[in-house]
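Recall the central idea of this unit: under ordinary conditions, the amino acid sequence of a chain determines the structure it adopts. In this exercise we apply that idea directly, starting from the sequence alone.
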Amino acid sequence: MDAHCSAFAPPAARLDHLDWLEAEAIHILREVAGQCSNPVLLFSGGKDSVCLLRLAEKAFRPGMFPFPLLHVDTGHNYAEVTAFRDTRATELGERLIVRSVEDSIARGTVVLRTPGDSRNKHQSVTLLEAIAEFAFDACIGGARRDEEKARAKERIFSFRDEYGQWDPKNQRPELWSLYNARIHPGENIRVFPISNWTELDVWEYVAREGLELPSIYFAHKRPVVRRNGNLVPVTALTPPRSGESVEEILVRFRTVGDITCTAPVASVADTLEKIVAETALSTISERGATRLDDQTSESSMERRKKEGYF
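Accordingly, the structure predicted from this sequence is:
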């Protein structure tokens, strides 16, 4: 009797957790398209934004996306990631807009304390300039609540005022998955369709969908130094300091960003199956483990988000 009933159960009864997360994200993307007049999807070439592209394909194909793609480039991104970004946008035939922190520096809207200062936190300025340039009323991003405590406070439809600022104490309710994108001119909504996903969900989805990713997500040999408990990659931007020994070991990146603040982890996981298994055993978030700029109060995520960060 039970087996007979199961065979004829409605399709929703047989969805697994990835199916539910995917359906929620597709619903959110369609809500953006229905409520917002000029949205944009933030695409860096990282794993989370790669998942967003697949979700957008499922939400809107065979038509074109109802929004362009936007990347705020610090000028210090890993070459493997920016090359992948360009290739993927071309393959999809979607419009990719790139705005650079370098240009903001040239305009004088971003001022570095030192030439070697991390540009990651300054992306807020360039993003707000791009929003004003194109009059975007919504920015779709790949942030997730499990990444960092400030992200965990944020709604899926996150309101930003006319200065691009976020007030964690003044957020709109989202009862029964009802989203409110109404804004006045100059205001903005940030939308996070995979907010309820975990890092493990992302990797399982990448594996299930057979999505391509930049090579640095997989274990490879790279020169690093050990600094304050982190593996810091040795590059022209991040040379070894006096007294540090350079080692070449197997590492991979759990998250990618500005070279000056993104550290790899020691790993032999060179396939999706191994990464899924490794992620399932991890007890620390990817940002907590590898984003050096999140480990100081001066550059805390909540402070940056209040100033307009992703």
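Residues 214-294 form one domain.
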